[in-house]
Structure formats: C-alpha cells, structure tokens
Amino acid sequence: MSDFYQNGIITNFHNLGDRPVAALESELRQFSRKRPMGLILPSLYSELEGPALSNIVDELSKVDYIGEIIIGLDRANRDQFLHAREFFSRLPQHHRILWNDGPRLKAIDKELAKEGLSPQEPGKGRNVWFCSGYALASGKSEAIGLHDCDIVTYDRSLLARLMYPIANPQFNYQFCKGYYARVASGRLNGRVGRLMVTPMLRALKKLYGPLDYLDYLDSYRYPLSGEFSMRSDVLNDIRIPSDWGLEIGVLSEVHRNYSTKRLCQVDIADTYDHKHQPLSADDANGGLNRMSIDIAKALYRKLATLGVRIQEEDFRTLKATYYRTALDLIETYYNDAMMNGLKVDRHSEEQAVELFAQAIMDAGAAFLENPRDKPFIPSWSRVQSAFPAILDHMQQAVDLDNRGEV
Q1: Are 183 and 176 in contact (CB under 8 A)?
Q2: Which pLDDT band, with edges at 50, 70 and 90, does 278 fall under?
Q3: At what angle do helices 287-305 and 346-369 cross, to 10 degrees?
Q4: CB 156, CB 60: distance < 8 Å
Q5: Quick one: which of 162, 197, 298, 347 has the fewest CB in 10 Å?
Q6: Cβ neighbours of residue 346 under 8 Å, at least 6 residues apart?
C-alpha cells in the first residue's frame, strides 16, 4: 500500500487498498462505451523469444475493454514477421502489427526522409512514433495506453490501473504516467531513476534556481517508466526524441501542451521487473551509459528552450553538485533497503553514480558541440501538413502486411 499524499504539482492516484481487478475492469467496460480504448506495444522481435511477452499476450487475451492493440515490431525479417503474426494471433482484440523493417513501411519512411520528417535513428522512439501515427490513422481509440513488452511480472491489473484515469469519462486528464517501486527478487533496482534523474534534477535546481519545469519533473515518482496512457489527440501534437530520452521527452511535451491539472500519475504495480540494461562503463553507445547521456541531453535541450543559458563551466558545477546529492541518496536507499530486507550493493551503486557523473559531462559536451541538433521526431500534425494522405497510406500498408499480401 502506498502513501496518500498529493505533494507534487500533478495529481497522484494511489493504490490505497486491495480493490479486485475485476471491479476495475467492470467499470472500464462501461467507460469503453463512451471512450473506446486501445493499446500500443513497441516490441523487438527478440522479445517474442524472451520470458515476458508470451505471458503478457495471455493476460491481454483476458482484457475485453480494449478494442484495439497496435504492435510495433522492430528488427524482424519476413519470416520473423510471419512468426509474429502467428504469435499474436491469439489476441481476441482487433490487432495490427507494424512491420517496421518491411518494404511497405520502409518506403513510407523513405518518402518522409526526403522532406526531413523521418526519425533519424532506429529505436523505441521511432517505433512508438510510427505506432502513434497508425493509432491516429485507424481512429478506433479515444484513450490509448502504452507499455513495454519485457515486463516479467506483468498481470492485467497493471493495464487496468494505467487506463482508468484516462478512460473515466468523469475525469478530465489528458495524460497519465504509470509508476511503481522498482523492487523484484529481493533487490532494489531502478538505478537510473534513483541515482541519476532525481539527484540531477535537484542539482539543476541548485544551479539554476527554482523552475516550474524542474518541479514538475520532480513530481513524478518514476519519470523513466515505460508505461503511460493518454487521450488520442495528444498523439497528434507531441514531438518525441528517438533516443533514450523518450520518456523525459514525452513528459516535457505534455508539460508544454497542457496544464498540469490535466496530467496525472498512477501506482500500477506492487512489484515490477523487466529486462535489465548493463552499466556499459566502457561503452558510451550502450547500456545505462548511453541511456544516462541521452537523458541528460534531453534535460539540457528542454532547459535551453525555456530560456536557461547553459554555459560550458556550468557542467563542472553541476557534476559536483549532482555527485554529492547522489552519494547522500545512496545512503538513504541503502538504509531503506535494509529495513525492508532488500539487497543493495553499495559498491555497484557508487560505480553507477561515478558513471552518471561522467555522463552529465559527456552530455554537456555533446549538447554544446551540436547546437543545431534536431533530436525530436516531428509531430504527426506537421507530417500531415506536408503529406496530407500519409496516415491513409500508412494504414493501407499495415493492413496489406497483416493480410499477407505481397
């Protein structure tokens, strides 16, 4: 059971009891009559062979309030795409797979690239962006959820709690972020959120003074979670990064487009575990090293758009402030873990903080060296202004792929 405080600047939906999932689903079925619901699943083909996705599909097969499921499939050849069609065929909901590496969607991507409107690099951001376009094209859903495909502790109560704040017609929220304790197998996880994002936000406040944007981000219990839900019109106007800054970028965009009164977060799971990324201390292009650099760059870019003047000498001060704040948090989390009988390796925690401190510097150098960098994928609103028929073409391409037409 979580606490009951509303101590941020967005609404927080707590888990204050053990309400049965059947009761939530009964209400969601009623809501779906006025506000049809869909779900986006960004997936690598390799996740079809992993320990999580088969159970996720089994759980989703029991969900009758979701009318549409959109699966974004990356890194799949034709045979693997055909296998994916069979794999997901047990879903009773209307579902479509976006074969992102197939000839039809690659042809659309090539047309977009001619006008500089295509995602610049592969990854989850690109996958989510194409799925969002298809959701707009199909027009079947007014409330849309999104979650990852590597959640090994998944059960359908997660989806029910994630969708409820957006699906309830009596609520006026446009966007909802899921959160949970990163605890699994007797260990305290979530190092990037705990030891990089939170202390970095607090260090930025000390360096640049109080900013509504930083207070806003600090209101999220777990800003890096891959689970969120939104009204479908949100998808039309947000720009998202194509790199590991996706989650921070989405939060920044909804903050820019909507009042904080229209944004919320919800406790969706007591325990949560998924595929863990390696630290990759020796490889700035992989693992948590790459992730932390991309997150820091996303924060710098957003602050610059808010008129914050970021100079080279700031990064040394930011690094020192961050480092001290993060070390204090290591002590706090270690004590909390001990009281709850959880394992925390303080040595590996300090190694992670040292890596994140260097990432803050590396991200700063990259930010200053590329002032004209365009990290955001254009909004679908902009794409449609350049290609008015793009959504129709995408829907046709996806439908042909899913029907197996050559």
Answers
A1: no
A2: low
A3: 50
A4: yes
A5: 347
A6: 330, 334
C-alpha to C-alpha distances, 279 to 199, 273, 292, nearest whole angstrom: 18, 17, 10
3-state DSSP call for residue 139?
Answer: coil
Q: Both tokens of residue 154? A: 């998944």
| Cα-based distances in Å from 83 to 58, 67, 80, 89, 287 | 17, 23, 5, 10, 28
Q: Is the pLDDT of residue 282 over 70?
A: no
pLDDT tens-digit readout, 141-157: 999 999 999 999 999 99
**Do residues 394 and 137 lie in contact, with contact meaning Cβ atoms separated by under 8 Å?**
yes
pLDDT of residue 285: 64
The string of pLDDT tens digits covering residues 73-86 is 999 999 999 999 99
168 token code pair: 């309830």
Take residue 324 and report the two structure tokens written for it: 């001290």
DSSP code of residue 196: I
d(CA 14, CA 227): 16
Start-to-end C-alpha separation, the chain: 52
- Report the run of H or E that residue 43 belongs to, with start and end: strand 37-44
pLDDT tens column, 41-71: 999 999 999 999 999 999 999 999 999 999 9
Please, are residues 210 and 202 in contact by the beta-carbon 8 Å criterion?
no
pTM score above 0.70 = yes
The DSSP call for residue 67 is E
3-state secondary structure of 237: helix
